[in-house]
Input
Amino acid sequence: MGINAPRSKKLLIALLVAVLAAAGIFLILTQKEYSLDFMAMDTYDSVKVSGLEAKAAAEKAREITENLDVNVLSRHSEKSLIYALNRDGKAKIPTEYSQYFNTMTGAFYESGGAFDFTLGKISDLWGIGTDNERVPEEDEIKAALDKAGADKAVFDGGTFTVPEGLSVDMGAAGKGIALDEIRKAYGSMLVRRAVVSLGGSILLYGKGDFTVGIQTPGGSGYMAVLNLKQCCVSTSGSYERYFEKDGVRYHHILDPETGYPADSGLVSVTVVSDSGTLSDILSTACFVLGLENGKALCEKFGCEAVFIDIENTVHVTDGIKDKLEITDDTYRIEESR
Output
C-alpha cells in the first residue's frame, strides 16, 4: 500500500485539476449578458452587463439612478433632498452622499467658480431644452447672478445651508455621482464587465480594454475613439442642447461669471477620471474655462481630457494621447504642450 500511495496521490491531484478545469469552463459558459435602457435624470440611459448577476446588476444601475434622481438630486421632484434644500434653505445630507458635496465645493474653488452648482434660477431663465426657451433680459440675468454663487452655500457637519433665492442645480454632477454609486454596488456583485451610460457620462467597469466613441460635434457618429481601461468618461458639448434666436445659437453650458452660454472657443470637452463625479464636473468646468485653463484644472485633479475647438482641432492631454484614434479626417490632433 505504501508503494501505491504516490500513484494514488497523483491520480487525486489529476482528478482535482480536472474538476477545477471543468468548473472554470462551466463558469465561463454560465457568464450572462444583459442590456437595459431607461430614462432618468432627464436623459436616455443604457446599461450593458456581463457576469453571473448580469440582470440584477443592470436593474441595480437603474434603481440607483432613479432613486438619486427622484429622491436626492432633482430640484424639480418634490420628494428630493435638493428640492427641500432649495425650498427650506437647509437640508441634512446623508453620510453616504457627503463626499460628493465636498467634491463639488472643492471643484468650485479650484476652478475659480467655473463649476458652480447654484445656477438653477439662471438655467430657468434660459429654459434651454424646455418649452420655455428664450433669451432673458440682461437685468433678469444680473438679478439671478446676484443670488447665485457656491461660495454662499455652507456645507458643515452634514448640513447644507443656502441663502434665500439661491437654487442648487445638480445637473453638472448628478450623472457622475450615480456612476460612482453604481460602481460601489458592483463591487459586491458578480459582475465581470459593464458599460453604464447616463447621457454624456459613462462608467467602464471590469477588466480588459474598452472602446469609447467621442461624438462628432453637431453631427452623427463619432469623430474619434478612446481605448481605455476601467474608468469614467464624461463629455460636455455645445451641440447637446441649444436653441437659435435671430441667427444666434444659445447652448446650455452657462458661464457662472456672465450668466450667458460659455464662449471659450471650445465645442466639446471629454474628461477621463477614476471618479464619475469628477469626470462630470470637470467636463463642464473645462468647457467654461477654455483650453489652457481647462488643461491646468485637469492636471490639478489628476484627470485626462480631450478638447475639441471651434476649428475642429483636437487637443489631448499627455496621459491619453496614445489612446486616442481619430476616425473622422476633418479633425486633426494638436498635441498638448
